[in-house]
Amino acid sequence: MMINRYLIVIDDIWNEYSWKEINHALMNGKAESRVITTTRNHAVANMADDVYRLKPLSHLHSKELLNRRLFDGKDNVPSDVPEVSEKILSKCGGIPLAIIEMASFLYMKPRVHWSKVYDNVGYESDVGGNADVWKATREVLSSSYYDMPDFLRACLWHLHIFPEDCLIKKETLIWKWAAEGLIDEEPGKGLSELGELCFQELINRNLVMSVEDDSHCGKVIGCRVHYLVLDMICSLSTQENFVTVLDGSKQQPPVASKTRRLAVQKRVAKQGDPLTNIRPENLRSFNTMGCHFSTDLSLSSFERLRVVAIEECTFNEGGSYNLKYLGRLLQLRYLGLYNTRIDELPQDIGDLRFLQTLDLRGTRVKELPGRVARLRQLKCLRADEGTAVPDWMGNLTSLEELLLGEVSKSVNFVNELSKLTELRKLEIRTEKLDKNQSKALVQSMRNLEKIQVLRLTMRYWWPSLGELNWGDFDPPRQLRELHLMSIASSQLPAWINAYRVPVLSHLYVNVMAVKDQDLENLGRLPELISLELLTPSNISPTIKGDRAFPKLRCFHTSTSFSFSEGTMRSLELFHFKVDISALKDANVNFHEGFVASTMKNLPSLQKVEAEISFTGDIKAIHEALKRAVDEHPNSPSLHVKTNQVATAQKRLL
């Protein structure tokens, strides 16, 4: 560091001591290096050489942000917007979070009631220091908070169990809400669906920030909480004795005996059992993530526990955690053991008749005890390839979500699957399927009338194995995601069209031939956001049709496509593969003009990823791609990967 020039960015320094420790490690060389820090603490900022204080938005920019959130832009602002909106805006003090939160609040209110909103937000901001910023934002957040129904407030308090800046995974969160009794069941709707609605409501109110999957545009996998919102949540949750956090990195008084929900964070082995001093009759929920324990936890004494989440934890210097006496926790609804070493489940797990969620991913559990078949209220089961699939899976008739590893070793699984009629989400992997198994699998899927997410992965596929014979398969109209990975079809299944699957938003499909009608059918899917279309590498189709693929944001393909004007107008990410030799064999000339035509008709393009397979010089192709993105109005980023492949391999999908 004394010799090399560097730029380091350190985000969110909390106190002066932390900055002193960091600053001590930074050597003051002569290379004119720079360190940029951010902090909420003015004292920390003043310790730096130069301080830039963020200024609030101007009134004009504040108004633009409000109109964009409320009306999708200033051009769409209706003429009857009440004048009181200007006064409401002044109460936000130019603070973006306050403006966004206020927009969400106003959106749910009739305009004639906006004056009442103004009266209820009691602070008109004259923003100065940090205290003013917090006060102005807190007023707006409080207005939105007290407008929420009680059950949604409880869902918000529950976020206190997660560390700051943590990615809160949706799939985990909604099942913990269900186990805590925060979601009321409704006839005809699954708990997972109701949990999704609560999660989306918090996003709509801008109380949490949605996080999308990097590889699947538009697929929300979780959320993060803004630090100002989290501060409010922690304050309210503590007042209500809703969650108690035991942070191993801080000096804290002993946990109170009346604790109802305990979240253990950053705990190390020498700190002992965190459950000491807690009265067993009070504790309802125990959550710990990324901690190290030198002794087993005394969980079996807490017989009223509804949630036990021991995730990414280690015990006794890497040893297995013993779940003995688990069967005593008769009220248990959620057992999450993600990435924690567990060698086996006890037989008395079958006594947990209220258990709803069992997450065994990343454990070393090799098989499910036979008594798991008695868990008739189990709604979510997650395991990976290390856990054998039992032949009695059909007994778990309440399952709404099922994620399994290798299923082909189970003789009866494809038949047992037909009994799981409450499934909303199914993700399974298999090494291979013969023709009889493929037929039985499709037949079983006919019974899954409530399925919304379907992911089937085959590790090995050869044409001799045949393909899934969909026949007259009639998919549920609520199907949102379909992933058929490494399962090739001779053509696109006929039922993938706008009439049969009108809400399909994510599609992964592998086909041996692509017809114009197939592309037309895909282009008419009104909600399609992400598409991965794997085809032979020696074709180069053109996507046609004005306003085709209206919402598509991500397109991954194994060959090169060109686009007519008016198609894929929302596309942001284009990932494609180019096999020059295969295209030449098919008399397709991949020249510079072809590259440009691939890009120029995509007005929203932000990122291009290309994989080039070639047995010779690829420099010219790389340069053509570079010129194409440089000439695009958006100047999208370009990532190129080159693969020198053998001729015998080049046509493998």
Account of the 3D structure:
- By secondary structure, the protein is α/β, with parallel strands linked by helices.
- Helices cover 26% and strands 20% of the residues.
- The two termini are 46 Å apart.
- Helix 3 runs parallel beside helix 5 (96-107), helix 9 (170-180) packs across helix 10 (191-204) and helix 16 packs parallel to helix 17 (619-631).
What helical percentage do the residues reach?
A: 25-40%
How far apart lie the N and C ends? 46 Å
For the sheet with most strands, the description reads: 17 strands, parallel
pLDDT averaged residue by residue? 82
Q: Write down the overall geometry.
A: globular
Number of strands: 26
**Rg for CA atoms:** 28 Å
Percentage of residues in DSSP E strands: 15-25%
Secondary-structure content class: alpha/beta
* Unreliable spans: 122-131, 645-653
Helix segment tally: 17
